[in-house]
Specification:
The chain is 30% helix and 21% strand. The chain is an alpha/beta fold. The strands form 4 sheets. Strands 1, 2, 13, 14, 15, 16, 17 and 18 form an 8-stranded mixed β-sheet that branches.
């Protein structure tokens, strides 16, 4: 038991260490962890984005009203998709949808240009940015700050069939930076670099080179292969710091989990496991000052023969099952919004975002002393809302399921975390994967215990 005197008697060194603890650090079960510094709770919401394809007018994203309704319900603040120009049905659908999302407080991260545009880099970039400063600016009354979250460079530049891809990627990124910074409507919009593949190597990162002079943020893709995100992020950042050594922030513009039942095209997991992993991943990226760009909102129709695993592999299309929302129909014409099914991950994410939502002016969170004991592979973050409530997010770096074809739930023995608070406070414990209301409450106290399995818990400290 840690007494009030114990808290007040912390040495200056211990207090300094407490304030500087990296929020995702795993602690040794027999040693205490001291926390005091908090971050704004709303930062968790800002650390999440979803990929959409509203410019695919002939696919399920063509049901624009349904897509806008889903995104609003989810509570996401940022969407990512490539900006398109011209008068194609997809470009017109995108132009109609993005201002509607802006009205709901959902901003856009448009990817600008394709690597293959490099021979006409200036013209291609001008066309894309002209779409933003022209039709889009008019649609939002000139306030592109309400529409745009950030701008992004070319997509997966190291995965193209182009032996000169590093030079061409740098050319496209330099042109994006030059033109964006020369236009008053875009001058304050952050610019992320080009993205690279999940399997990016040190050699490829070194070939691409330092892009810090033509980007504000780092950009990466990191698909999580049906495993815990916690141990995968830092090694990836270590590789790509060669390209973005002075990045103000990192945007992992594509990441997430796949629920396809085939076992011959990369690891995939059941929907419930993806829900557990994904809300933990939001926290993992948040504590690293990064944005988790979930790919993607919607599945595609996919007619699968479930007779046996061989027929599943022969008929299932892996690319059709990245979505937060399932599309059970066999065709786009039949896949109307009323047939869509929200997966467990959609609900878990919505609950977490709703719990953390606290929009408003910039504020400095108050420190709050916490000492924790016990637990293996436990990660933590401390945040605060503007009304004074603190929230302690707790999750574990453990795998919870095997991939397909078994896709079996792995047993995770709970570990008990004992939490000591510097002052007696009422407490409510939330389990976003399970439900939206608290699973446990207690009156003001300086001590509580949390039995932590594979799922995220959020402790509200009143």
């Amino acid at each position: 038991m840690v007494s009030r005197r114990g808290f007040l008697g912390l040495t200056a060194a211990a207090v300094a260490a407490a304030a500087g603890v990296r929020a995702a650090q795993t602690w040794t079960p027999d040693l205490p962890v001291f926390l005091s510094a908090a971050r704004p709770a709303d930062g968790v919401c800002e650390a999440y984005a979803v990929n959409t394809k509203l410019f695919y007018a002939d696919r399920v994203y063509g049901y624009t009203d349904g897509v806008v309704d889903l995104l609003t319900e989810l509570g996401v603040r940022t969407v990512r998709e490539r900006v398109t120009s011209g008068s194609s049905p997809g470009a017109l659908a995108q132009l109609a949808a993005m201002p509607r999302l802006a009205e709901q407080g959902i901003r856009w991260h448009p990817t600008v240009g394709l690597l293959e545009d490099w021979p006409e880099a200036a013209a291609a970039t001008a066309a894309a940015l002209g779409q933003l400063t022209g039709p889009y600016a008019r649609a939002v009354g000139g306030d592109l700050g309400a529409l745009l979250h950030s701008l992004g460079g070319c997509n997966e530049v190291d995965g193209q069939d182009d032996p000169q891809w590093p030079a061409h990627a740098r050319l496209m990124q330099t042109e994006l930076w030059r033109q964006a910074r020369s236009q008053p409507l875009l001058a304050d919009v952050p610019v992320a670099g080009p993205s690279t593949r999940t399997d990016v190597t040190v050699a490829r990162a070194e070939a691409l080179g330092d892009l810090s002079g033509v980007s504000d943020w780092g950009n990466a893709h990191l698909y999580l292969h049906g495993r815990s995100a916690t141990p995968q992020i830092d090694p990836h950042l270590a590789i790509l710091e060669r390209c973005f050594p002075r990045a103000e922030r990192w945007f992992f513009t594509e990441s997430g989990y796949n629920n396809a039942p085939n076992d011959d095209a990369g690891p995939t997991v059941r929907e419930q496991a993806a829900a557990t992993y994904s809300v933990r991943a939001i926290c993992d990226f948040f504590v690293r000052d990064s944005i988790y760009g979930r790919f993607e909102l919607l599945d595609d129709p996919d007619r699968i023969d479930f007779t046996n695993q061989a027929t599943v592999n022969a008929t299932a299309e892996r690319q059709a099952h990245f979505g937060l929302v399932a599309v059970p129909a066999d065709s786009v014409s039949a896949a109307t919004p009323e047939t869509w099914r929200r997966k467990p991950e959609f609900h878990a994410t919505r609950r977490l975002l709703r719990l953390m939502s606290d929009p408003g002016p910039v504020f400095r969170p108050d420190p709050f002393g916490i000492v924790m004991h016990g637990g293996a592979y436990v990660q933590q973050a401390l945040v605060q809302k503007r009304d004074g409530r603190h929230y302690l997010l707790l999750w574990r770096d453990v795998d919870v399921a095997t991939p397909y074809p078994d896709a079996a739930r792995l047993p995770v023995n709970p570990t008990t975390v004992t939490v000591h608070l510097q002052t007696a406070r009422p407490v409510a414990v939330y389990h976003p994967v399970l439900r939206g209301d608290p699973v446990h409450t207690q009156p003001p106290s300086t001590r509580l215990t949390v039995d932590l399995d594979g799922d995220l818990r959020v402790v509200e400290i009143g």
